[in-house]
């Protein structure tokens, strides 16, 4: 076969995994340990540079995956004929034939801010099931958490009044990445997406302005930029007009004449190039009261810079720097097996053993501190962030609306101390490790079963 | 609705677009210019930092999209009920009902190296069709070209003998991004992917090793790391063993005893942490002849650094830094309409007008220079890189195999002058603009139809 089919079906996703998840599962079957109870936790060890927090996102897709997990006869046949499993035990295939996820899942709600070393999710399930879901869970939570965090930072930089539009589809890493970016961005407080499919699937109205090509096309065929504005305005009177194709100020002057003459009701203009701070001030003075949208590789730092420079910008189109860039690198680590705490400690990549809970302490509505402790510890006027979302393979909660998630993001970011919200060099999070967890970590380190030395 | 469905159907893709592509098309219909012949070219104006070239990739998916483009009655109804198009002409809907792509496409073959300002693709079609496909074409070509370029650079840094494995699924930006990354990486010369679904869809064998979780699970339940190695080796005797869970050197020593005793035939080991140069040398001295794989946030620069430090590494697992990071930011610009050249010139974002061709001049098998000229110019012992791939909506070529694309990538990268292949501060490309194109650019600039000043 020479190219990937565009189609992606839910039943494809069980093979959307690294080969070793399947080979390791076959090994577990061969050793008759595949049903031992295992707990894996998904944690981000180090945040992207200049990030003081993460906004958890992607749980809805993760749970949908777990609900639908199964292997079709065709998939099993494809694995069998690959030859890779020729020494694997036959019982591996009967396991796949009837596979479904029967475990428990604990997770932090979407829209909640979390810090490095805090688990976003824990899977407690038969070892082979908990193993096999690793790749997909990391894929969905890593990506949507990245986008949600960027979106929340951009919202924080732009202020609550600004209109923030997600324009990233052309720069997103595949069509599905565009859809998921739109979802995560809306869940983290952006107002709308330009992606029509994403908007319709999410029950939202897509948003957009116009492109240079329309201005150029109508200017070429009908004689002037103003003809382009007039034509587009005729069919889409509410859409902002893009005024930087030739000369931004000249376009603003011409539009101002029409507005003053009462022949045009202008709902907004967009500027996509040039010195946005200065141009937006000049446009504002010519078109008072008309919303000004800015776009062009903008991110949270540029938004803050523009606001600091006194730019007159009411809305931002956010694309490339929202949907690409340095990733969130979550890992998914075995922390308990058969009731025994487990940890990896090679070369500084330490993970804390045991099933854990994040106990969050608030003071006057602000996050005072987080305590990373064991699930068996009791909260002490603290909010436990990890909540059960799956019990014995059954979903416990109905899916939240995107509006509820966006509200949680807003409240959660607002509860952060200022030094963690900073865009540059945020402070380390107020995270303490509980005495019980420290003790368990020391015990596990000294009791590790496989010292080779 | 509260979450995106996991399903992606080919018929969904017509709405995988920015809203303004649809509103502008409706405006073209209203102005009766929707069938004017338009040419758009897809070009990367500026390469990511330290990139001397790009490897074109993603054309197969772009063409599949164009072949399948259509709007279903349900999609049209969804657009109609959105309210956004309430002032749009009725004829827009009849256009969508019978929509299919009827234009011509010229493109650079996948696996070809190109430089900034060289078109990767040109669409020549009725204006509204050429407009509406922008978002999707940019999405697929931007992303796969990025991945192919990174993969080609990693191959170039690692040398032709190294085994390069694509391990990026958990860090890719959505499941589909993982599939497309695997395709692009294989097309640019990587040997295999760990993504089972991608490998099976591409007719390849998936590859993989084992994870720390298996070592920890078996060490916990059966007593030692060596039990884990023995067990996994029993079912997958060809798979490399991961030896850095506890103590890399101790693990290598234990394996060496088994190899020397003749009780183990070792096909490879993997090291995922620590000082890979020193550890690989120490492991090589203990396990001579055993292939050593390295992984852990590796990229082309780290591969070059490891080789420079005398690392004994035979293969690399490449993930995060292959599939994420700074994007390729292609743009899709109107260059000709109704036979008239068109250009945008605002604020330094200049695009050359007219339908163009890249004329590549080779000397002794090396790229001597590229000439960006008009499609009407004749090659002068040069190779024209843009070839017709679609004619009046019909595909002209059958799809290429991934092996053929990988071979072209290899030859194409080998034809680059050394100063362009450098990983740091590569030279600017030997690109000249033809006299005819310069003249047309000047003419178009002075003849622009919409001077507001």
TrEMBL record, chains A, B:
Transiently phosphorylated on a His residue during the reaction cycle. Phosphorylation strongly increases the affinity for substrates and increases the rate of nicotinate D-ribonucleotide production. Dephosphorylation regenerates the low-affinity form of the enzyme, leading to product release. Residues 380-440 form the Nicotinate phosphoribosyltransferase C-terminal domain. Residues 15-142 form the Nicotinate phosphoribosyltransferase N-terminal domain. InterPro entries: Aldolase_TIM (IPR013785), N/Namide_PRibTrfase (IPR041525), NAPRTase_C (IPR041619), NAPRTase_N (IPR040727), Nic_PRibTrfase-Fam (IPR007229), Nic_PRibTrfase_pncB (IPR006405), Nicotinate_pribotase-like_C (IPR036068). GO terms for molecular function: glycosyltransferase activity; nicotinate phosphoribosyltransferase activity. Keywords: Glycosyltransferase, Ligase, Phosphoprotein, Pyridine nucleotide biosynthesis, Transferase. It catalyses: 5-phospho-alpha-D-ribose 1-diphosphate + nicotinate + ATP + H2O = nicotinate beta-D-ribonucleotide + ADP + phosphate + diphosphate. It is an enzyme of class 6 (ligase). The keyword Phosphoprotein applies. Pathway: Cofactor biosynthesis; NAD(+) biosynthesis; nicotinate D-ribonucleotide from nicotinate: step 1/1. Residues 165-276 form the Nicotinate/nicotinamide phosphoribosyltransferase domain. Pfam families: NAPRTase, NAPRTase_C, NAPRTase_N. Its EC number is 6.3.4.21. Belongs to the NAPRTase family. Catalyzes the first step in the biosynthesis of NAD from nicotinic acid, the ATP-dependent synthesis of beta-nicotinate D-ribonucleotide from nicotinate and 5-phospho-D-ribose 1-phosphate. NCBIfam families: NAPRTase_put, PRK09243.1-3, PRK12484.1. This is Nicotinate phosphoribosyltransferase. The lineage of its organism: Bacteria, Bacillati, Cyanobacteriota, Cyanophyceae, Leptolyngbyales.
């Amino acid at each position: 076969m020479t190219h990937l089919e565009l189609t992606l079906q839910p039943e494809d996703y069980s093979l959307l995994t690294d080969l070793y998840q399947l080979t390791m599962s076959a090994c577990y079957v061969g050793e008759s340990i595949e049903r031992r109870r295992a707990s894996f936790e998904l944690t981000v060890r180090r945040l992207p540079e200049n990030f003081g927090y993460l906004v958890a996102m992607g749980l809805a897709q993760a749970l949908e995956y777990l609900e639908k997990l199964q292997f079709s006869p065709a998939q099993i046949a494809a694995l069998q004929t690959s030859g890779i499993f020729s020494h694997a035990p036959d019982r591996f295939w009967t396991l796949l034939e009837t596979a479904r996820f029967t475990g428990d899942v604990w997770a932090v709600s979407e829209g909640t801010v979390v810090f490095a070393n805090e688990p976003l999710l824990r899977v407690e399930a038969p070892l082979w099931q908990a193993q096999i879901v690793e790749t997909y869970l990391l894929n969905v939570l890593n990506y949507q958490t990245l986008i949600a965090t960027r979106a929340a930072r951009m919202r924080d930089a732009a202020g609550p009044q600004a209109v923030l539009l997600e324009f990233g589809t052309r720069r997103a890493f595949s069509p599905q990445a565009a859809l998921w970016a739109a979802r995560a961005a809306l869940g983290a407080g952006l107002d709308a997406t330009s992606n029509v499919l994403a908007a319709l699937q999410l029950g939202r109205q897509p948003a957009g302005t116009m492109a240079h090509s329309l201005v150029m096309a109508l200017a070429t065929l009908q004689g002037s930029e103003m003809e382009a504005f007039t034509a587009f305005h005729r069919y889409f009177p509410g859409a902002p007009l893009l005024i930087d194709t030739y000369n931004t100020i000249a376009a603003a002057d011409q539009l101002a004449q029409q507005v003053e003459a009462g022949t045009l009701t202008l709902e907004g203009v967009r500027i996509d190039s040039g010195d946005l701070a200065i141009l937006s001030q000049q446009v504002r003075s010519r078109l008072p009261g008309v919303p000004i949208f800015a776009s062009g590789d903008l991110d949270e730092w540029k938004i803050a810079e523009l606001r600091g420079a006194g730019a007159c910008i009411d809305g931002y189109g956010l694309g490339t720097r929202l949907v690409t860039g340095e990733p969130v690198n979550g890992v998914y680590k075995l922390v308990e097996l058969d009731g025994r705490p487990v940890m990896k400690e090679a070369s500084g990549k330490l993970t804390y053993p045991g099933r854990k809970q994040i106990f969050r302490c608030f003071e006057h509505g602000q996050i005072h501190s987080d305590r990373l402790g064991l699930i068996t510890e009791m909260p002490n006027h603290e909010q436990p962030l990890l909540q059960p979302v799956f019990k014995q393979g059954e979903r416990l909660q109905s899916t939240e609306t995107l509006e509820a998630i966006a509200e949680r993001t807003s409240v959660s970011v607002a509860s952060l101390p200022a030094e963690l919200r900073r865009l540059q060099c945020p402070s380390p999070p107020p995270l303490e490790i509980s005495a019980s967890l420290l003790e368990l970590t020391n015990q596990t380190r000294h009791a590790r079963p496989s010292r080779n030395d």
